[in-house]
Amino acid sequence: MDSRRWARVVTFAVLLMTLAGPGATGTGAQGSPAAGAEGRLEVAVTFSILADLVANVGGDAVTVSVLVPAGGDAHTFEPSPDDITVIEGADLLFENGLGFEPWLDDLYGASASAAERVVVTEGLDLIEAGSEGEDDHSEDGNGHADEGDGHADEGDGQADDDDDHGDGEHDPHVWHDVANAMAMTGTIRDALSRVDPANAATYAANAELALASLTALDAFVVTEVAKLPEDRRKLVTSHDTFAYFARRYGFEVVGTALSSMSTESGDPSAQQIAELVDAIDA
């Protein structure tokens, strides 16, 4: 497989990951809100990829409001007064945690919201910041997902009110491993069911469909990666975001243009660019 075809495969896989499941595609999702649109559970979600996962599970039973829209940058996002209103009216607030939304604690406090905060990364096998996924737990390519239950603590996925909702010590880009997206789906399902038990069967059915789609996606990526020689399984990215993808699917992160997991770091120096070019050429 040549490099251009492989680039298309990776792009296609990432797009599928964000869209996989019934809620995002508009087919197959079930929902039975108590009183039409007004009876739907109001859910706020911090960024668009997580919003897709929530919509897949919630279907027609929830109204999803996204704080950082598609194409936005959660690292540098600046909330507006409208975002305070969104959180204030929410029954649930889904967040990534791990320092991915550094503005969220202040925004939540300013809103005086009573929404339960659900940190979807709790219980996952996290990668320490800067380790670039070299601690590989997926050598056999079999994955580590278990129908969305294995990583989340009893599906609670909720943060302690006294906890800092992001430690900044771990890579927050967990969704690039499809198995993590599956675990997050299980956490979302359980949180929605806990807050809205009348629609628990709906959330369970939608989650089952979403998990089936994600399982197929994971198998697709494993199959396609197997076609690429091991010595060509290398990644260079703008900033350090693909450690989970690299760990799961057997890639090496050769280098990044920005020496940070956040886009907030300064532009690379000429020496850093030269070193990156040397690493790519090696």
UniProtKB/TrEMBL annotation:
Instruction: Give the UniProt record's GO annotations in the biological process aspect.
Output: cell adhesion; metal ion transport
Listed Basic and acidic residues bias regions: 139-154
- Where does it live in the cell? Cell envelope
Reading the lineage from the top rank, the first entry is Bacteria
Q: Which InterPro entries match?
A: AdhesinB, Bact_metal-bind_prot9, Lipoprotein_PsaA-like, ZnuA-like
Taken from the UniProt entry, a GO cellular component term is:
cell envelope
Name any one GO molecular function: metal ion binding
Name the keywords, alphabetized. Answer: Metal-binding, Signal, Transport
What is the residue range of the signal peptide feature?
1-23
Q: Where is the composition biased (Acidic residues)?
A: 155-166
Give me the ranges of the annotated region Disordered: 130-173
The text of the family note is: Belongs to the bacterial solute-binding protein 9 family.
**Protein known as:** Zinc ABC transporter, substrate-binding protein ZnuA
Which organism was this protein described from?
uncultured Thermomicrobiales bacterium
Organism lineage? Bacteria, Pseudomonadati, Thermomicrobiota, Thermomicrobia, Thermomicrobiales
